[in-house]
Automatic annotation (TrEMBL):
Record key words, sorted: ATP-binding, Cell inner membrane, Cell membrane, Membrane, Nucleotide-binding, Translocase, Transport
Residues annotated as domain ABC transporter: 4-239
Family, similarity comment: Belongs to the ABC transporter superfamily.
PROSITE patterns xrefs: ABC_TRANSPORTER_1, ABC_TRANSPORTER_2
InterPro entries with a match to the protein in the record: AAA+_ATPase, ABC_SmlMolc_Importer, ABC_transporter-like_ATP-bd, ABC_transporter-like_CS, P-loop_NTPase, Thiamine_ABC_ThiQ
GO molecular function: ATP binding
Record NCBIfam families: thiQ
Protein name: Thiamine ABC transporter ATP-binding protein
Record bears the keyword Membrane: yes
Cited SMART domains: AAA
Keyword flag Aminoacyl-tRNA synthetase: no
UniProt lineage: Bacteria, Pseudomonadati, Pseudomonadota, Alphaproteobacteria, Hyphomicrobiales
């Protein structure tokens, strides 16, 4: 499944149940096709688990995961139309930038001319031209995340899962990465689930917010409604006294 604006797909967790020891989770939520959904909530509320269920790294005890209306619950991660970027360790340490990106085209790294063109374009798009032959250890943290995003671009899957991808970057770099993400998103319209602890990041890039508490979606809706009067109470509590700082100013 390739991505174009025309074929964005919704992601649905349909009465999904999942348990880790004492942590029982129950997800029943839909993320809109082509939108960025910020997945937020306190530590341990189940944000990474929700993404792992969509990616196929975890399997529900009950319920279904649907992507574009197709039931993918029984499919392994590689067969799902999904790319995922983690906070770190997205790259293979012994492969250079070109090969790390090339894995998005061919897991065996048999790369033809068309693959090389796609890789060069993705590296240009992510500001990495000229760094093709560097190893991950020869890059900054921000550059490593750019390589991971370049791989997302060449994979060209309709769903993008971002698990705090910029969480270890400083504020200026994080801001640059969000800008890059917005640019890529304007082009590709991937259905993006973006785990973040930063309300300002959610405000900036997300169309919608899904808010979790103790393994359950307790609020979901348009981002604007989360930063306005009448915002969901659980979300206000989570943000605490800083809420007014983030809240929408009257126009
Ligand atoms: N591999 C695991 N084995 C057992 N329990 C786990 C495992 N991974 C997560 N858990 C538990 O499942 C619950 C949800 O964890 P999860 O990592 O999804 O939360 P999170 O919202 O992403 O947290 P954080 O913001 O701290 O990353 C927590 O209670 C956690 O302790």
């Amino acid at each position: 499944m390739n991505v174009s604006k025309a074929n964005s797909v919704a992601v649905r967790l349909d009465k999904v149940r999942f348990t880790y020891g004492d942590a029982a989770m129950r997800f029943d939520v839909e993320c809109r096709a082509g939108a960025v959904t910020a997945v937020m909530g306190p530590s341990g509320s189940g944000k990474s688990t929700l993404l792992n269920l969509v990616a196929g790294f975890e399997t529900p005890a009950a319920g279904r995961v649907l992507i574009g209306g197709e039931d993918v619950t029984g499919l392994p991660p590689a067969a799902r139309p999904v790319s995922m970027v983690f906070q770190e360790n997205n790259l293979f340490a012994h492969l250079d930038v070109r090969k790390n990106v090339g894995l998005g085209r061919s897991p065996s790294l048999r790369l033809d001319e068309a693959d090389d063109m796609a890789i060069a374009e993705a590296l240009w798009r992510t500001g990495l031209s000229g760094k093709e032959h560097r190893l991950p250890r020869e890059l900054s943290g921000g550059e490593r995340q750019r390589v991971a995003l370049a791989r997302v671009l060449v994979r060209n899957r309709p769903v993008l899962l971002l698990d705090e991808p910029f969480g270890s970057l400083g504020p200026a770099l994080r801001s640059d990465m969000l800008e890059l993400l917005l640019g890529l998103q304007a082009e590709r319209r991937m259905t993006t689930l973006f785990v973040t602890h930063q309300p300002e990041d959610a405000r900036r890039v997300a169309d919608e917010v899904v808010f979790l508490e103790q393994g359950v979606v307790v609020a979901a809706g348009a981002t604007d409604s989360f930063f306005a009067d009448g915002a969901p109470e659980a979300f206000r509590r989570y943000i605490g006294s800083d809420f007014t700082k983030f809240a929408r100013k009257p126009t």
